[in-house]
């Protein structure tokens, strides 16, 4: 059964939703440009303190979009051909861009811990990268208890 | 190398892009509501004549969003832990809602052919379902030749 959770100023992630978000390694993030055109790409995310974080290049379209409109949506889902077993979660929220400083470094450490790729091959340099922090405002899940 | 293709009034899908879109069985679609809030969920799509089609419930948020703003984005991507092998395609475009009639039935036949699930278990009834037709306006791909 699909479930909704809403609260102004941030919504708490249920245990099953947080588990899916925490362990899955890819999600798709949607942003909107100033003209109202949506954009969506896969990103690798972490969860920390009920918020979602992912890295983006400073000049990437999604970064540019978020500077114009901080509203964001993220979907984490697991596809299966047995459609009765489909499950996932849509998180809508507000994005804040972390551009260096302690909050950036804390989130980067979380990303490095989950994705060693970053540390070994694709370092997140404060000069070129931002980390996007999502505060959930609406959560909609399916196939999770 | 990432590649871009743009053209007003519809852009042609390259052979490798069309192949990925045609054979992959799930994509994620992003829409925007009247207040500029993005929404994204997984859908099962088909490609026909250079356009992308997927079904939606008449009352679903993405259907409601598309009635307010026909701009849409779809991402088809294949995740791998070997990040140098990541590949995918983002298609941005304009959506038209097919609500019954020959165009609806033609697209439904394509969906039924690719996803037998629809025909056997989740029939697409003209009373409850729409089919969204996407005309691509921008295509951005990565990891495809």
Topology readout:
The structure is a homodimer of 145-residue chains.
Chain A lengths: L2 E4 L8 H9 L3 E6 L5 E6 L1 E4 L2 E7 L3 H8 L2 E8 L8 E12 L2 H14 L1 H5 L8 E14 L3
Antiparallel strand pairs in A: 1-8, 2-3, 2-6, 4-5, 5-8, 6-7, 7-8
Your description of this structure?
With 145 residues, the first copy, chain A, is α+β, with helices and mostly antiparallel strands. Chain A has helices at 15-23, 61-68, 101-114, 116-120; strands spanning 3-6, 27-32, 38-43, 45-48, 51-57, 71-78, 87-98, 129-142. In chain A, strands 1, 2, 3, 4, 5, 6, 7 and 8 form an eight-stranded antiparallel sheet that branches. In chain A, strand 6 and strand 7 form a beta hairpin. Chain A is globular. In chain A, 41% of the residues are buried. The interface between A and B is medium-sized, with 31 and 31 residues.
